[in-house]
Amino acid sequence: MQRKAVVVGVSQYLKQDLGNFASFSNNANAIADILEPTFTVKRLPEVVEGDRVRVGKNGITFDRLETEIKHLFTTTDLETVLFYFSGHGLRGQQFHPKTYLATTESEKYDEGYRKSIEIDTIKKFLKDCPAREQIVWLDCCYGGDLVDFRELVDQNDGKTRLIITASRQQEIAYQEIAGEKGAFTKVLVEALARTGETERRITCASIEDAVREKLQNLQYPQMPQFYRTPNKTIEFWERKAMTQDKQIVQNANQSEKNSEHKLQGNDRMDVQQRKIATLKKEADIIYQQWESEMSDEQRSKLWLRLEQKQSQLKDAEQS
Hints:
The protein has two domains: about 5-240, Rossmann fold (3-Layer(aba) Sandwich); about 245-319, no CATH class. Helix content is about 40%, strand content about 25%. The chain has nine helices and 14 strands. Helix 2 runs parallel beside helix 3 (about 120-130), helix 5 (about 185-190) crosses helix 6 (about 205-220) and helix 8 (about 265-290) runs antiparallel to helix 9 (about 295-319). The longest helix is centred in the C-terminal third of the chain and has 28 residues, at about 265-290.
């Protein structure tokens, strides 16, 4: 079963009236980390930290974000698609106000915003999306404009949809006092956690119940909105009881290390090929960052990182 998630955290904005919050990228990384065992996850904007791809605190352009969203919802060979966004939600001043997801380039234009993703665009993509299971989670202000999606989740088209927004249309979405994560994402991650004392399946209904309860307990004045297809279930994974015995965990880790030392012949070659593929991917990401970066200083730093990564790739290919 093909499952793909595009996880976005926009922490950098060019306009001063939109604050830069590290918690937006922290939110996205927390969601991506917990989804990766069962979803192929694309993190945006991506950066390479050590040997890992992470959601960075740099910006993302309107064109890039729109392209990635369109690709997610139009790909034809996926069973489940998931779009998560953490960043600023914007509300226009039109007679019937439009709601937008902000990109790094977002700015006011007439009564609305330009270089921003309209919620109506997400709605259209969902309506035409070929995937059987469709999930959208928005941790941003004014996300409740998705009330217009009730008709979509109720329609009998064979699709199962789960849409959750951090707040109602007129509400802001709160960040934790410590500033590390948004209140909504914090409870959503806890609801998705795969560890617990008992086994149970995590479904749309169980996520909704857990988020409601946990956010209410935090006493933030925001009310998440839930929209899901009636009488349908999306199973995220089965939550297994896991031992807390540290010694058993250590033994398992040691066993894995011992197995790595025993790799011979084709197995060792496979490891080297995967290493080369990873280095190529990391080099491509750094190059994309270099192309989109506007600061000369940052471009110079990225170019040095690219040269280092290419040197590592050359050594790996020759070994």
